[in-house]
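FW: tagging you since you asked about this chain on Friday. Here's the raw sequence from the shared folder, copied in full. Didn't touch anything.
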Amino acid sequence: MELKLKAVTFYNGSPEVAELRPAGVVQLIREPDNKADKDAIAVLYKGIQIGYLPKGTKTDATYAEIIDYAYWDESLKWNTEHMGRFQSMKMRIKQSEQVPTKGGKIYGGRYLRVTAFLKYFDSYGGGDGLIKWAFKQAVGESYKEYDLDWERLYDGYRVALDEVCNRGTAMHDAIECALMGTDHDPSLLPAGWDTFLKKYEPEVLYMEERFRDNTLMVTGQPDFVGYVNYKRRRVLAVLDWKSSREVNDKHRLQISIYAKNVVVDGVNPEIAMVVAFGAENRQKFSASVVRYDQVIENYLACRHIRKAMDVFGVRLDESSVL
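HL: got it, structure written out here
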């Protein structure tokens, strides 16, 4: 279904809308309290309202893909050279494709863990083989002269990595127990936990419930789905805990896949957030917020990667297939 943006003139009085060059997706927000139209659906681009869907449009979609847009110049002519003001935009709303499933799972489907899927975004391949090679290159011929065992050095790296993973798992378990009000060892909670609680006041709906994404053919378990404080409001959010010092792009992709697969009473989360509790700052954590329109853009990128994997027959990591 293709639609044109309405009521643009009302919003393009501000420079950020008048000079807009939209690309990617827009978010669709229902406005049941709108006095002019109780079925009104607002269109937001990067969190900024830019207009509405045409009156009477019926859709359950939460986003639309941008097809093209145009400007209206002083000579009262349309153009695509960004002369004048942003005035028109065409969007496409895709209907959901029905796939035969059993309990939400495609018959015979092979699902990758989300974290394993995201390894294919790694320009270094994300494989132990390359890391092993790097260790050997770093040591070079000196391992013969100084009787160094590069294989043992590599094994030491693996042991250290496993210890980090175990500490991360213990932290996740402690946070889950703290939120559920069950017995836990408070020493396993991250240093910034109390500050995080005070700032965001998380109210959990559920944790660690598995989903299966039948488009990307991935599966995962969000650490937290519930409500948090955000810009002086209580909003539905999906959270992921990390023990790292900072949040990276792969973390944001991971939480975007999680958020795309969360619906609570027919409502999508307003934000997704990654919380890194290894941050070396005053509050002892770093939080990165991903708006839902950004969630959709990240998810579309993942769809392209998945399609490329299928076209080229990428061999899956069987240890990560469920």
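FW: Residues 112-320 form one domain.
HL: agreed, and Residues 71 and 79 are 5 Å apart (CA to CA).
FW: great, closing this out.
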